[in-house]
Every structure is written in C-alpha cells, then in structure tokens.
Design goal:
By secondary structure, the chain is an alpha/beta fold. It has helices at 16-19, 32-39, 60-68, 72-80, 86-92, 114-128, 151-162, 179-182, 191-203, 220-226, 255-262, 290-301, 322-331, 399-402, 434-437, 442-462; strands at residues 143-147, 166-170, 207-209, 229-232, 238-239, 252-254, 282-286, 306-310, 334-336, 339-346, 352-365, 371-375, 381-384, 387-390, 394-395, 429-431. Strands 3-2-1-4-16 form a five-stranded parallel β-sheet, sandwiched between helices. Strands 6-14-7-8-9 form a five-stranded parallel β-sheet. Strands 10, 11, 12 and 13 form a four-stranded antiparallel β-sheet that branches.
C-alpha cells in the first residue's frame, strides 16, 4: 500500500486581507488533481466507521474510491443516492464532528477531507452543465405537503418524489432554501449554489410555492384536507435575547435579522439593493457558534473597523466549526473569551454606545458536557461599540404550532416528534429539523428529513399510524 500523506490536501482560499473587502466565497475548492490526491488517502476500510457518522448515510468510501479512480460521474451518482444537497453539505456541514471524526486514518494522521471531496464532486457536476436526473418510481396517486424549503424539507421532498409521491413544498419567504438562503452568508455558501441545489429538487418533480405562510395563508388542517400527509420543517427562526438592561437600545440586532438583511435582502450589494442595515465601526457579536462567526465576519465585510466576539467560555468550548473560527481569526475578528455581557449603555438618543461585561471562569461541566461559566465578582468592564449582534440561539416560530390543534409542543415551543420516525401527535403530520430539535446543523436536519421520509412512505402505503 502506498504511503499515506499525513495531512489533508490543502484547499486554496482567498487571502484574509483581501476577502474581508468582498463577499465572494472564501475557499476555492479542489482541482481534479487535488481531489484525486486527497481521495487516495482513503484506505477503503472493510468496516468504514465514517458512514456511521453521517446522518444521511452516504457511502463515503464508495464515492471517494470513484474519485480516486478519476470516475467523477460515478462519484456524483453514488453521492446522490443518499444526498440531494452535496454542494451545500460539502461547504457547511461540521464534518470534523461527524464523518471525519470516525475516519480510521484520523487516529494517526489528519482524517480524509470528506467534506472537501463532497464539495468537489458536486461542483464538478455543475461545471459539466449536465446534471443527471434519476428516474422516479411510478406515481402512487398520493399527495404530500412539505412546509418549509430548508434542509429538512428539501430532503423529505427529494426522497418522497423519487418514490412516486406528488410533492408540493410551501415556503414562507420569497426565495426557497430556508436557513441556507437567509442565514448563511454568501462568502460561506454562495446563493447560486443554494439555487442550484433547490433547482435539482424541483427537476426531480417537486412543486414549489413561495410566499406562502402556513398558519396564515392556510392552516395545517386545511392542508390535510387536500394532502395525504404533511411534513413540517419550518426551522427555528425565533431569536433568543438575554433580557439585559439596555437591550432594547437602537443598534442591537438579533443575528437572524442582521444576517437576513445582508443575505436574503442583499444589503451587502448596496447601492444596487438599498436594504437598511447598520454598518457599524465597532461591532460586538454575542455568542460562539457558527451564526456568531457568520455575523462577526459579515460585520467586517460591511465596513467595521473592529469586529468583536464576546463569548462566555474559552475557545476550546466554542460550538462553531474549527474552520470558521480559524477564518474569523485570520480576518482579524477580536475574541473576548470568558466574557459575558450584563448590560448595554446608550446615548441620549437611544443608540448603544457601550456593552458592559463581566469576566467568567470555568467551573464543573454542565448538561452540555462543557465546563460551566461562572461570573467573577467585581470584574465588570465596558467595551465601546456602536452595533451589537446577539447570536445566542433560536427557538421555533410559534405560528404553526399555535394554529394547529392537537399538535403537541415542548416547553420551548418545539414540536414534539419521534426522533426515529418524525411522527407527531397529530395523525398524518410529521416534523423534523430545527422545529423539533431547536437550532442545529444542516446535516442533522437532513438526517431527520430522511428518517421522516421513510416513515411517511410507510404510513402512506399502509395507512397505519
């Protein structure tokens, strides 16, 4: 066996001091030669653990072997047996905590760059201009409504339409994609990529209706009069705040609003799009996840002279992807670790001018497994700011649950659904993704969509609930 290269094949990227002035995608992706070289690092395990770490069960060694052999067409076919959004997953999924975490060679060297190879093969297919559309099963005569066109909804729709069901996907916003289109910035996930992946699902035969707010335009019960089953994948779009003194000051955004203005509403393309957004000079982002990294890096690109991250734990405990943290550091984002805001101070006109913080230290692990942050008495200090972005998490929007009698919800407003089937308390209604779990990752939402699609197929075939 050839000697294994200990490190991943590097992926070219925009220089940090160049990219902070544009919204173009940061990594350039692999060339064909780079992809083949990286694919040859895979030792083709007899019992591949990487598949166990993939929520949508991709045959990872299978598609990598085809890349190593130079059979790119075969590789994308193998990929799409399980994943209708490979270009998205290859860019935004936390592979280091999923498939790559279980890579056998990762015990001694760096794991195979599974995500980069997934992105490569999806982009290769698009560049050929010849996207294959697999044949679907014969029509079953059954109709399914999918509410929400984010990762969970797209997966359910893609799986079920290929099984012969008539699928209509309803999206509340004017563009499909859910969090992929409004939440993740252009420099991390170009919107042309999202449109391409959504377009593929439509080519499979899924009907898409935008600007349709289920719970307002029509209720779930009204959909059930026309459709044989309904899948709810409306995400977690209700932002959390900390209810601190001064938090209602002008210049304080939720990350949802800030990123939606920039991404979906194209504020970054001013003056072509005249979407109002704060272009602060000293911007503080509260939180340590991917959304916080997206917000802090967006602030730099919108002209901030200084972009701070305020996070109550240390760098080790940050839930953001390692690559996103590193990109933020390279771009000059300033990290204030073991720091938590306690109040905001505004000027006479109500505009935020300072965030008052307290120093933290780490105590014993909490329910998340991470060490619990504990305030240090009398350690308060202030940071001058003119914009604050609160990125500490989200809950499901209450609209659908509040307009659907008989649909059980949890204490945080999430829909209660069986984690292995997606079945809710209401017959014929399934749910998955962030509306069930709270804000999580794209691939976990897709995994929930896959499980729900299987269960929906069984229900629609047998009528058993």
């Amino acid at each position: 066996m050839a000697k294994i290269q200990p490190k991943k094949t590097p992926m070219p990227a925009q220089p940090s001091q160049e990219r902070i002035y544009n919204f173009r995608e940061v990594p350039f992706g692999y060339t064909e030669d780079m992809a083949i070289a990286e694919a040859k690092r895979c030792i083709q395990c007899k019992e591949p653990k990487c598949i166990e770490g993939c929520p949508v069960e991709i045959d990872i060694p299978g598609f990598i072997k085809l890349i190593a052999d130079g059979n790119f067409r075969g590789a994308i076919r193998k990929m799409k047996e399980k994943n209708v959004l490979p270009a998205v997953c290859g860019r935004v999924c936390p592979q280091e905590d999923q498939c790559e975490k279980y890579c056998v060679i990762g015990k001694k060297f760096e794991p195979v760059a599974i995500g980069r190879l997934e992105r490569f093969i999806a982009d290769w297919e698009a560049e050929q201009g010849d996207v294959e559309i697999p044949e679907s099963a014969s029509p079953t005569g059954k109709k399914v409504a999918v509410v929400g066109s984010g990762p969970a909804g797209l997966t359910v729709a893609g799986d079920l339409v290929q099984l012969g069901y008539e699928i209509t996907m309803f999206e509340a916003l004017h563009k499909p994609g859910g969090v992929l289109i409004y939440g993740i910035p252009e420099f991390r996930l170009p919107k042309t990529i999202v449109a391409r992946e959504v377009g593929y699902v439509q080519k499979l035969g899924v009907k898409l209706i935008n600007s349709f707010v289920v719970g307002r335009t029509r209720t779930v019960d009204e959909l059930l009069e026309e459709y044989d089953a309904v899948f709810l994948g409306t995400g977690a779009g209700l932002p959390w705040f900390m209810f601190l003194p001064g938090e209602n000051s002008n210049g304080i955004y939720s990350a949802n609003e800030y990123l939606t203005r920039s991404n979906l509403m194209k504020a970054y393309l001013f003056p072509e799009y005249d979407t109002p957004i704060m272009r602060g000079e000293r911007v503080a982002t509260i939180g340590g996840g991917n959304v916080a990294m997206d917000s802090a890096r967006t602030a730099l690109r919108l002209g901030a002279k200084e972009s701070f991250v305020i996070y109550r734990r240390s760098r080790t405990e940050m839930p953001a992807r390692i690559e996103e943290i590193e990109h933020a550091e390279e771009e000059g984002v300033i990290f204030n670790f073991l720091t938590n805001p306690v109040a905001y101070h505004a000027d006479d006109d109500g505009w935020v001018k300072e965030v008052e913080c307290i120093r933290m230290e780490l105590g014993e692990p909490d329910s998340s497994g991470r060490r619990r942050p504990v305030p240090i008495e009398d350690s308060n200090f202030r940071i001058q700011v003119d914009t604050v972005i609160v990125a500490i998490g989200n809950s499901p929007n209450p609209l659908v649950p509040s307009t659907t009698p008989g649909l059980e919800t949890g204490k945080y407003g999430n829909i209660v659904a069986d984690e292995t089937t997606g079945r809710t308390s209401k017959k014929g209604v399934f749910a998955g993704g962030d509306i069930v779990t709270g804000a999580a990752t794209v691939i976990l939402a897709m995994g929930a969509g896959r499980l729900a699609a299987r269960s929906m197929d069984e229900y629609l075939r047998t009528g058993k609930w």
